[in-house]
Every structure is written in structure tokens, then in C-alpha cells.
């Protein structure tokens, strides 16, 4: 389980100025919809637009707890849509990149290969992110700054959106938005008309040469700089008595310039007079970022005429902010409750916009999450239950010590990333022939407080063959060459901490385990071809892409997911939108 705090790579880093971005591209915004290259691409009885919505870190129980306070899009999904109440990821790697790749491909990490947000590259002997690509170059819209290159080249299966475009003659337009590259890219696939994300260090809106640029995005970003939200305040949306739990969540982490209680001003560092790095961090952790993504998606619907040019188009939006808020304030916070109230309003507006532009019943929507989240350990401890933080450097040290009598290279452990432990070259091969050293190592790991057990790579490879749910989960996450040599399983409610400073103990929380609080997410479907209702059948987010496939006549290669046929209108006869 990773803790996404300031010290780790999944942190929401600095958001730097895009004030000066407004200078270019204005005239390009608002271009007229392009006519479809072929009208026969839209067969009768298909939705005109497929909308994939992901709410990063949205636990399924939020729906049960908070739905009474929703009046907008989340409410409409529950009222007019199909609600799968027992949907969960069956695998261990409950992180953003694996989750989005699973949603988009309809397959699990053992098939699509996106085993984590980042993993240890054994050839390069360094960490690589799931989207880093040395052969492409990122570029920022509206004069913003960015660097590096990102694409879906490490994703071993095509996304549903790509299959849709390929199998319907190419007229489909694929457009995705998120604050995170790993979300926008995996939702889109290897190529797209537009995949847009925010640079984690400069705050600029970014794409890469794998996708190319879009004039309407250039115009939108120039006309709507993020800095125009400077000076706004995130205040409670509802009366204080409407919120569960404590105003000051136990163990909550702060965002620079904020306290752990409302209101949360977007004014950067304390005493700051203009947008600074703290402002961009605050913005990404506020409802204003969700609203921005929604408006950018509406600009795509309008400018490209999504759903109006004869083809079945694809729009993906991943709302990252609930993840940033959840990491800091935890699942039992006023902030999580409030961010969903605000998202409910945004989604209500988005659906109203789609009704107007595409037509009610002409589009199909799925909403799900990429993973859940654990309670903040300090908060869980208050119940008297065992919870804590497992220090990975300390675990590493114990392993080195256990191997000391056996003549192994030092260090024997190259890296522990979350649950994945990677040995230095040659160490694992040697251990296989050395039962005494292997046992000493295993004993050392298993005797560490907070560790529940471990699985060796050789136990996990070769597909699912286990009856243990946690080992099955690790098997479904195992991809040879990318996964670690050992999967270290912590106890429930324990986070891992990669900080080298043993004295640090984090506030905030994380996810990434095969425990149900990380796996259980909502699946909501609505619109074209969907039969409303509550469904209690087992489901996983890998079922969404095959279900979209059934609605659009598109075939996927893998069968990790299933068609959620119980929520589909019978195929015979006239169907909605026909
Ligand atoms: Zn996260």
C-alpha cells in the first residue's frame, strides 16, 4: 500500500503558474463540429457517445452513506441507472494506473501489465512510471512548461476506446481528461484524438506526441487559466450538522496554507499575494479542479460535436481530486463528504449538457472508481484495533541482516515499492538453490510487526490457481518481469512507508492492498441500453468495457471481465436511442 504524501511519487506535486498561458490560441476555441468521415460507422441501435467517468479513490460505501445529500448527477445515476452494489477489484494492485487500465481494457493487471503506478525496471535498475515513454515527448498547451514523455506503450492490451474506433471504421473520436497522466492515458489507450492531463510540477495542461494537440483545448486553457480560481475559498456546502464524523479528522494531513478544518482558502502559502506552488496544490485538492475538468469536457462535447457526427464517440473523465483529498483527510472526513456533494453538482450539469447536446437516451455513462482507501491508521487505532505503518527501509534492513551469514551481495534488496520487493540481480536465482537462506529471509519478513505474510514470485506466476483470496489477488496482479520477486502482504489496516527517516510517521492514509476497503468500489451505469435498478451480483470494474462492447457491437480480446447482462435492455426489438 502506498502512502501518497509529500515524500512519495504519487503525491500531487507543485502546481506552477499558468497565468501567462492566456496569450495564445484564443481564436481556435469554439471551432465548429467536424462532420464524421463516414456516417455508416454508426449502425442503428448504438449509443452515439460512450462516457467513462472515474472518481479516483471513491469507496463504495460513500454511496450508501452520502447519497441522501445528493441531488445532481450522482443522484441521477442512482435513480435512473443500474447500481452494482457488490462490485470490487479482485486483485491486489489497487492503485490508480492498474485501476484505470482495468476499467479501460476490461482485463486485470496480470493481462494488461499495468501492475502499479510505478515499478522497478530490472534492465534499467531504476523505478519507471507506468506511462513513462522514452520515445515520445510531452507538450504543454497555451505556453505552459512540461517535460518528459508519456504514453500507453507499457499497456499490453488495447483500450475499449481503441477497439471501438478500430472496429467501427475509424470515425470514433477518443477524448480523455484528468489531472493525472496515468488516468487520462490509460482511459484513452495507445492513440487518441486528445488525452489531456496536468503536469504535476508546473500545473500546465499537457499531452504528448503519442496523441497530438487539439486546438479547442489550446483555446480553453488560454481562456480559462487555473489561476482565475486564485482567492476562492472551499467552504462547506451544507449546514455543519449535515456532516458525519468529526470536523477535525483524526490523523489528517494538511495541505500547505490550510488547516485541517474548513474553510480552505485558495491563496497559496500563508501571507502569499499571488498564485504559488501551494496554490496549485490547494487547487488540485479542491472542488474547483473537478469543476474545471467538467467544463473542459463540455468544451470537447461542444467543439468536436461529440455524439453528433454519426459515429459512436468516446469521452473519458477521471476526477483525481477525491484521491488527493482522501489521502490527506481520510475517508472519515468532512472534506470527502463535501467533495462528493460538489462533484454531484458538477455531474448533474454534465448530464444536463449531454441531454441538450447529444440527447437523453443517446449516450451511455459508466461511473466507477480505480480503488478505495484505508482508514487513517491513527483513526483506526482509536477503535482499539490493530493498525499502523510498516517501514519499508526497516524491513529492508531486517532482510539484509537475515542474509548476512549466507554470503549474499549487499544490498541484496534492490527496492521495495509498495508490496513489491525486488532483489538485486542474481539474488533470487541464488536463493532458489539455498533453502536455509530463503527460510531465514522469510522468517525475518514474517516476524516483522505489521506483516501478514509473503508470496514468492514463483508461487504467483502462471495465472490463478489459489483458493486463498489474498493470494488470488496477488496472482491477478502478477506480470512476469514487472512484478517483484516477493509480494509482502501487510496486516489489514497497515500502510507501508518508504520514508528513509524511521522517526517519521505519516498522517493521512493510502491504498494498494488486496483488502476490501481498497477493492470495493461503486459501478453505476446509465442511459442507452441500460436497465435501471439495484444489482447485487458480483461484478468488477473489468466488466464495464465488455458491457460497453455489448452495447456498441465491439469485441474485446480478453475475457477477464464479463458483460453485465442483467442490467442491459433485451437486444431484440427497438432499443433506446434507435
Ligand atoms: Zn491515491
What does this protein structure show overall?
- The structure is a single chain.
- With 578 residues, this protein is α/β, with parallel strands linked by helices.
- The protein folds into two domains: 325 residues, Alkaline Phosphatase, subunit A, CATH 3.40.720.10; 134 residues, Gyrase A, domain 2 (2-Layer Sandwich), CATH 3.30.1360.
- 30% of the residues lie in helices and 16% in strands.
- It contains 19 helices and 22 strands.
- The strands form six sheets. A ten-stranded mixed beta sheet has the order 6-9-8-7-12-2-13-21-3-22, with helices on both faces. Strands 15-16-18-17 form a four-stranded antiparallel beta sheet. Strands 1-20 form a two-stranded antiparallel sheet.
- Strand 7, helix 6 and strand 8 form a beta-alpha-beta unit.
- Helix 7 crosses helix 9, helix 10 runs antiparallel to helix 11 and helix 13 packs antiparallel against helix 15.
- The longest helix has 24 residues.
- The radius of gyration is 23 Å and the shape is globular.
- The N terminus is likely disordered.
Number of strands: 22
Q: What fold name stands as the CATH topology of the largest domain?
A: Alkaline Phosphatase, subunit A
Question: Helix coverage percent of residues?
Answer: 25-40%
Q: List the total number of helices.
A: 19
Mean pLDDT: 90
Low-confidence runs of at least 5 consecutive residues: 1-43
Any idea what the shape is? globular
Strand order of the biggest β-sheet: 6-9-8-7-12-2-13-21-3-22
Sheet of most strands: 10 strands, mixed
What is the top-level CATH class of the largest domain? Alpha Beta
Q: How many structural domains in the coordinates?
A: 2
Strand content: 15-25%
Instruction: Give the N-terminus to C-terminus distance in angstroms.
Output: 46 Å
Q: Which molecules other than protein and nucleic acid are bound?
A: zinc ion
- Structural class comes to alpha/beta
| CATH superfamily heading of the largest domain | Alkaline Phosphatase, subunit A
Radius of gyration: 23 Å
CATH architecture assignment name of the largest domain: 3-Layer(aba) Sandwich
Amino acid at each position: 500500500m502506498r502512502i501518497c504524501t509529500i515524500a512519495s511519487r504519487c503525491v500531487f506535486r507543485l502546481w506552477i503558474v499558468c497565468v501567462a498561458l492566456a496569450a495564445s490560441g484564443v481564436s481556435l476555441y469554439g471551432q465548429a463540429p467536424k462532420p464524421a468521415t463516414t456516417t455508416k460507422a454508426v449502425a442503428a441501435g448504438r449509443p452515439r457517445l460512450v462516457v467513462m467517468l472515474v472518481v479516483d479513490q471513491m469507496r463504495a460505501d460513500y454511496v450508501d452513506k452520502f447519497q441522501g445529500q445528493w441531488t445532481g448527477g450522482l443522484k441521477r445515476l442512482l435513480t435512473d441507472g443500474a447500481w452494482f452494489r457488490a462490485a470490487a477489484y479482485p486483485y491486489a494492485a489497487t492503485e490508480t494506473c492498474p485501476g484505470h487500465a482495468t476499467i479501460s481494457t476490461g482485463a486485470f493487471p496480470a493481462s494488461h501489465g499495468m501492475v502499479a503506478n510505478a515499478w522497478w525496471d530490472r534492465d534499467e535498475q531504476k523505478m519507471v512510471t507506468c506511462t513513462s515513454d522514452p520515445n515520445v515527448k510531452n507538450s504543454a498547451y497555451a505556453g505552459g512548461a512540461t517535460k518528459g514523455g508519456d504514453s500507453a506503450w507499457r499497456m499490453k492490451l488495447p483500450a475499449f476506446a481503441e477497439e471501438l474506433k478500430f472496429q467501427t471504421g475509424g470515425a470514433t473520436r477518443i477524448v480523455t481528461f484528468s489531472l493525472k497522466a496515468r488516468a487520462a492515458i490509460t482511459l484513452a489507450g495507445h492513440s487518441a484524438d486528445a488525452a489531456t492531463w496536468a503536469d504535476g510540477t508546473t500545473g500546465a495542461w499537457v499531452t504528448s506526441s503519442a496523441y497530438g494537440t487539439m486546438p479547442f483545448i489550446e483555446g480553453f486553457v488560454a481562456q480559462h487559466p487555473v489561476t482565475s480560481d486564485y482567492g476562492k475559498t472551499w467552504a462547506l456546502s451544507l449546514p455543519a450538522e449535515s456532516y458525519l464524523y468529526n470536523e477535525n479528522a483524526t490523523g489528517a494531513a494538511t495541505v500547505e496554507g490550510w488547516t485541517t478544518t474548513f474553510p480552505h482558502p485558495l491563496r497559496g502559502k500563508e501571507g502569499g499575494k499571488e498564485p504559488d506552488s501551494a496554490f496549485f496544490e490547494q487547487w488540485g485538492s479542491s472542488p474547483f479542479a473537478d469543476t474545471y475538468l467538467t467544463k473542459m469536457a463540455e468544451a470537447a462535447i461542444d467543439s468536436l460535436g461529440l455524439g453528433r457526427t454519426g459515429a459512436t464517440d468516446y469521452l473519458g473523465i477521471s476526477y483525481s481530486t477525491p484521491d488527493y483529498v482522501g489521502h490527506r483527510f481520510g475517508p472519515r472526513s468532512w472534506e470527502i463528504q463535501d467533495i462528493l456533494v460538489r462533484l454531484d453538482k458538477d455531474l448533474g450539469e454534465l448530464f444536463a449538457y449531454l441531454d441538450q447536446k447529444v440527447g437523453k437516451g443517446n449516450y451511455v455513462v459508466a461511473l466507477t472508481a480505480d480503488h478505495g482507501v484505508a482508514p487513517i491508521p491513527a483513526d483506526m487505532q482509536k477503535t482499539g484495533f490493530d493498525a499502523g505503518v510498516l517501514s519499508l527501509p526497516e524491513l529492508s534492513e531486517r532482510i539484509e541482516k537475515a542474509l548476512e551469514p549466507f554470503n549474499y551481495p549487499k544490498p541484496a534488496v534492490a527496492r521495495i515499492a509498495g508490496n513489491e520487493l525486488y532483489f538485486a540481480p542474481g539474488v533470487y536465482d541464488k536463493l532458489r538453490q539455498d533453502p536455509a537462506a530463503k527460510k531465514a529471509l522469510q522468517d525475518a519478513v514474517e516476524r516483522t510487526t505489521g506483516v501478514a505474510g509473503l508470496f514468492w514470485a514463483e508461487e504467483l506466476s502462471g495465472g490463478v490457481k489459489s483458493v486463498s483470496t489474498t493470494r488470488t489477488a496477488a496472482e491477478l496482479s502478477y506480470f512476469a518481469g514487472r512484478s517483484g520477486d516477493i509480494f509482502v502482504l501487510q496486516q489489514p489496516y497497515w500502510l507501508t512507508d518508504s520514508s528513509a527517516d524511521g522517526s517519521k510517521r505519516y498522517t493521512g492514509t493510502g491504498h494498494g492492498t488486496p483488502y476490501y476497503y481498497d477493492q470495493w468500489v461503486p459501478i453505476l451505469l446509465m442511459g442507452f441500453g441500460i436497465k435501471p435498478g439495484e444489482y447485487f451480483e458480483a461484478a468488477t470494474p473489468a466488466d464495464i468495457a465488455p458491457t460497453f462492447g455489448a452495447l456498441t457491437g465491439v469485441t474485446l480480446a480478453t475475457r477477464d471481465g464479463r458483460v453485465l447482462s442483467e442490467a442491459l435492455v433485451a437486444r431484440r426489438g427497438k432499443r433506446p436511442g434507435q
